[in-house]
Amino acid sequence: MKAINVGLLGIGTVGGGTYTVLKRNAEEISRRAGRPIRITMVADKNLELARSVTGGEVALTDDAFAVVSNPEIDIVVELIGGYGIARELVMKAIENGKHVVTANKALLAVHGNEIFSAAQKKGVMVAFEAAVAGGIPIIKALREGLTANRIEWLAGIINGTTNFILSEMRDKGLPFAEVLKEAQALGYAEADPTFDIEGVDAAHKATIMSAIAFGIPMQFDKAYVEGISKLDAVDIAYAEQLGYRIKLLGIARKRDSGVELRVHPTLIPAKRLIANVEGAMNAVLVQADAVGATLYYGKGAGAEPTASAVIADLVDVTRLHTADPEHRVPHLAFQPDQVQALPVLPIEEVITSYYLRMRVADKPGVLADITRILADSDISIEALIQKEAAEGESHTDIIMLTHQTVERDANAAIGRIEALPVVQGQVTKLRMESL
């Protein structure tokens, strides 16, 4: 059977891994796909790098538009990243009737609605397993494996950089800035780590998963995003004493009034499997009505794990290459005319539990004043630690865990607590999820 010709845009870490794995496992892959899949053209600004990876066995160009316009190319693999030129190339490939495989979570989270609509009209596929959690097949699980279920919520450790930093802060008791330098030295963090440490990367991925889980459009601009750069090592230690671990979670939950879509540091009970995901590993926990909780764990980044997902998409597209477009799996799991524009709830309307740490004067009546304010807001306390004041100190820490409440009420209560003359500075607030 005629081979499928693939044009590769970008032969950096993931592109190089894709080329290497596809070549190494060519026989196994073609047995599964039903025909050979060959990268026949590669575009990269660094032609010398492209030549060294491919051994000059394929056509090379520094003009990516030459690939998406080549009539011999069946599938375009976009591994350039970013929102700019990548969007132009993907839209041009679709316009030219080519299927697209991409690992570009930022592009899909921001422009996915437009891209999927164009692909639907043109009768081509856009596959994006590698865009979320590297080699973990979470997109396929949400879109196909759990198709009989109503998905209730999902929560994921979907950024390896931040998980590595939090693991090191907990294990070594070091401050954030010190561990970030270590992560950069080891290659886990970029020179500019903003997208990772401020939660933007995780929010891109959570946006994509929420769209597939609930049949809603991509709504990245509505996501609540909070990173780990302001997290204090003392809170990680206190959480541990209370039986919790702090993880940066991407959370999507369907409620009657809309969808929660949020990324922030979260306390999770230490006995949960997902709380024990350490280092640069990723994990996604999905709660569905029929199957219950399922956990997906593995490497969320790296050349070959991500290449594994890219090639799985290539095989899927190859199998369906000649299929009637109306009978393919829809991009967002639900039929395009069944996607519902459910609102993403503002963070003030989120319902969750809280960890509160406050620095207070070490004298009688302080705790009673604080608990009265919480009671007035119908916020009940699940656990409490009051630390002994250090010798010569006039202030000490109180740490409280609350039961579930609406964020707006929690914020109002915190404002009143901070106004008490016995409270020093601001209250540290972290969200908690029992999962």
Automatic annotation (TrEMBL):
GO molecular function: homoserine dehydrogenase activity
UniProt xrefs under NCBIfam families: PRK06349.1
Family: Belongs to the homoserine dehydrogenase family.
InterPro entries in the cross-refs: ACT-like_dom_sf, ACT_dom, Asp/hSer_DH_NAD-bd, HDH, HDH_cat, HDH_CS, NAD(P)-bd_dom_sf
Domain of life: Bacteria
Pfam assignment, any one: Homoserine_dh
Presence of the UniProt keyword Lipoprotein in the record: no
Lineage, opening ranks: Bacteria, Pseudomonadati, Pseudomonadota, Betaproteobacteria, Rhodocyclales
Source organism of this protein record: Thauera mechernichensis
Protein name: Homoserine dehydrogenase
Record-linked SUPFAM superfamilies: ACT-like, Glyceraldehyde-3-phosphate dehydrogenase-like, C-terminal domain, NAD(P)-binding Rossmann-fold domains
UniProt keyword annotations, A-Z: Amino-acid biosynthesis, Methionine biosynthesis, NADP, Oxidoreductase, Threonine biosynthesis
Pathway assigned in UniProt: Amino-acid biosynthesis; L-threonine biosynthesis; L-threonine from L-aspartate: step 3/5; Amino-acid biosynthesis; L-methionine biosynthesis via de novo pathway; L-homoserine from L-aspartate: step 3/3
EC numbers for this chain: 1.1.1.3
TM spans (from-to): none
Domain ACT residues, every copy: 355-431
